[in-house]
From TrEMBL:
PANTHER family: TRANSPORTER. The chain crosses the membrane at residues 21-40, 52-77, 98-122, 160-179, 186-206, 226-253, 265-289, 318-339, 359-379, 399-422, 442-464. It is found in: Membrane. This is Transporter. One of its GO terms (cellular component) is membrane. It comes from Marinobacter maroccanus. It comes from the Bacteria. It is a multi-pass membrane protein. PROSITE patterns: NA_NEUROTRAN_SYMP_1, NA_NEUROTRAN_SYMP_3. Signal peptide: none annotated. Belongs to the sodium:neurotransmitter symporter (SNF) (TC 2.A.22) family. GO terms for molecular function: symporter activity. Keywords: Membrane, Symport, Transmembrane, Transmembrane helix, Transport. Pfam families: SNF.
């Protein structure tokens, strides 16, 4: 039950560093949200689920699930002014609630750590493909040759380890520099560069002769092609694409000034994240259609289908290189955000400084990533949970992906929504979120009723499907 005598305030972290501006936070939060999910997953799940109708449902889900939970997470971070776990505990205590609610942040931080371990492996794929594109390895390629290129990468533990190490080193390098010199400097360079590269890619896509077809595919609703399963996928993707349930927005929110509107800022991040996803579709689908390829090609769309297209198009080498640099930048900014919450916690709870904390957490995460690398080749036949029919044939990589995406993230998000919606004082929320009248009432009803139910549906569906 909501307590009316909550204590607001910054907590003992008043001297904590702050983002230099609202724009810096928006760029950082957008950098976290914009990742492989936007440029890799969104186009292919759109292709698999009928295009425009899926996009409409996805946008509705962003409004109903994504924005309310993002606002709740940022509120906790700013109100607590500490690492996510401590911030959750402090906000709970100020609202006369049990400190055990910090389990939400603990689950989120575990999820972020585990996700980064295999996300870094995929980021390494993007890094390796920058080199392949630049050296002309796609030029004149066939489906077999491109498939062999990708297959040889996955079959080589040494290559995967090299690129995984490089990617994780880039992430550690930025996070070790702290807020101003690391996170903020990186996102103010990488995010504008990412947008420019994406616009260049869209510009190139307009020359393929199939841009109109892509626009129609993305924005013309065909509800006959949208199944219940497609709706649930849109629901889940809207949740995951904004980096929710990973304690990231709590960590980033802890650096946010009190004069910044959480509501307007969260909406800005959601809009920018969605724009990137749609631009990625406009960049990718014209190339796919121009080459007579399958729009619903699954995860291989990025690493097998598009290289084939770039290898057989005018200036394909140049634009293929730019595209994979874009993909690498998106993965890098997300990787930075995944490492930050755990590093923030280690820095506050141990005697290690920022650099030592970043190196320790990063190396541990890198070590866990080796298991994912080996599961792609040497341990490809190892299925640790094969005794359960549901997990038969699932490798370590598959299991880490499944449990983080289908258990940890929705559980953390669900607990956060319930806590903020039902156990934090209404007036405290209204003041901190800087929402007035109907806007606050809408958000409050969403976070209390609609959002938890929607996340619970995704949670149960993913566990039972």
């Amino acid at each position: 039950m909501t307590q009316s005598n909550s204590v607001s305030g910054n907590g003992s972290g008043a001297a904590r560093g702050l983002w230099s501006s609202r724009l810096a936070f928006i760029l950082a939060a957008t950098g976290s949200a914009v990742g492989l999910g936007n440029i890799w997953k969104f186009p292919y799940v759109t292709g698999e689920n009928g295009g425009g109708a899926f996009v409409l449902v996805y946008l509705l889900c962003i409004a109903v699930i994504g924005i309310p939970i993002m606002m709740a997470e940022v509120f906790i971070g700013r109100n607590g002014r500490h690492n996510p776990i401590t911030s959750m505990r402090l906000v709970a205590e100020r609202n006369l609630s049990a400190p055990g609610w910090r389990i939400s942040a603990i689950i989120g931080m575990i999820a972020a750590f585990v996700i980064l371990s295999f996300y870094s492996v995929i980021g390494g794929w993007a890094a390796s493909y920058v080199g392949h594109a630049a050296m002309g390895d796609f030029t004149g390629g066939t489906a077999d040759s491109i498939g062999e290129l990708f297959g040889s990468l996955l079959a080589s533990p040494g290559q995967l380890l090299l690129w995984h190490t490089l990617f994780m080193a880039l992430v550690i390098l930025v996070v070790s520099q702290g807020l101003k010199s690391g996170l903020e400097r990186a996102v103010t360079i990488l995010m504008p560069a990412l947008f420019i590269l994406l616009l260049v890619a869209v510009g190139y896509a307009t020359t393929t002769g199939h841009f109109g077809e892509a626009v129609s595919f993305l924005f013309t609703p065909d509800f006959g092609a949208l199944t219940i399963n497609g709706v649930l996928i849109a629901l889940g993707h809207a949740f995951f694409t904004l980096s929710l349930g990973m304690a990231i927005m709590m960590a980033y929110g802890s650096y946010l000034g009190r004069d910044v509107s959480i509501g307007r800022t969260a909406v800005s991040v959601a809009i920018m994240d969605t724009v990137v996803a749609l631009l990625a579709g406009l960049a990718i689908f014209p190339v796919v259609f121009a080459n007579g390829l399958e729009a619903g090609a699954g995860p291989g769309l990025i690493f097998q289908t598009l290289p084939l297209a770039f290898g057989n198009m005018p200036m394909g080498g140049l634009f293929g290189t730019l595209f994979f640099i874009l993909l690498l930048f998106a993965a890098w900014t997300s990787g930075i955000s995944l490492l930050e919450p755990v590093v923030e916690w280690v820095e506050e709870k141990t005697s290690l400084a920022r650099t030592g904390s970043a190196v320790l957490v990063g190396v541990l995460c890198w070590a866990l990533g080796i298991a994912s690398i080996l599961s792609l080749n040497v341990w490809a036949d190892v299925a640790p949970l094969a005794m359960f029919e549901r997990f038969e044939g699932k490798t370590i990589f598959d299991l880490l992906d499944f449990f983080t995406a289908n258990v940890l993230l929705p559980l953390s998000g669900l607990l956060t929504a319930v806590f903020v919606g039902w156990f934090v004082a209404r007036e405290s929320l209204k003041t901190d979120l800087a929402l007035q009248g109907g806007a606050f009432t809408l958000w409050y009803n969403l976070i209390r009723f609609v959002t938890p139910i929607a996340v619970a549906i995704v949670f149960v569906y993913n566990l039972m499907s």
